[in-house]
Amino acid sequence: xxxxxxxxxxxxxxxxxxxxxxxxxxxxxxxxxxxxxxxxxxxxxxxxxxxxxxxxxxxxxxxxxxxx
Length: 68
Fold this sequence. Notes:
Layout: E1 3-10, E2 15-20, E3 27-30, E4 47-55, E5 58-66
Antiparallel strand pairs: 1-2, 1-4, 2-3, 4-5
C-alpha cells in the first residue's frame, strides 16, 4: 500500500494533496476517501497510507488511513 505525507488539506473545501514517499506525482485526496466515520479531515504533514486510483484529472487517493 502506498504511503506519503499530506502536503496540504483544506477542511472547508474538503480536499487536498498527498506527496508520495519516494517517486511519484502528488495525489489528490477528497474527504470522502478518508477512512472513518463522522467528520473526516487530514492535517498538513500527517503520515498516511492509501490506495491510488486514476481520477478524471490524475491520480487520486482512496481508502486513506493515518499511519501510527
